[in-house]
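S1.2 Input.
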Amino acid sequence: MSTEILDPQLTMYQMAAQQVIGRDVDTLTLYHLNSLTPVTVPAHSDALEDKVRETVVDVAKAITKGDFDPKPDARGHCQWCDYVQVCPAFVGKKVPLSLKPNIQKFSSN
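S1.3 Output.
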């Protein structure tokens, strides 16, 4: 049984870091900011990178074609997405102010 953590977000961070620094990474460290706790795991496999890359490309192609059918889970995890205001899953629903992205923090004006 593999002990590899199947976390697509962490795998994408690994892929981006490798592209930026131009070499493979040995470990990944995620810093939990609330507790200031680092969690370090071995780098993910090439197979997992390929799977994540394939998923990202497939999703991007579907979104480009307008074929995007979000499915929030019972806990509403996708409610934390920065695109909740324009998400088809929330059309006609009130979006709590706390879930609306603060675009001012990204604005240079």
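S1.4 Remarks. Residues 46-64 form the longest helix (19 residues).
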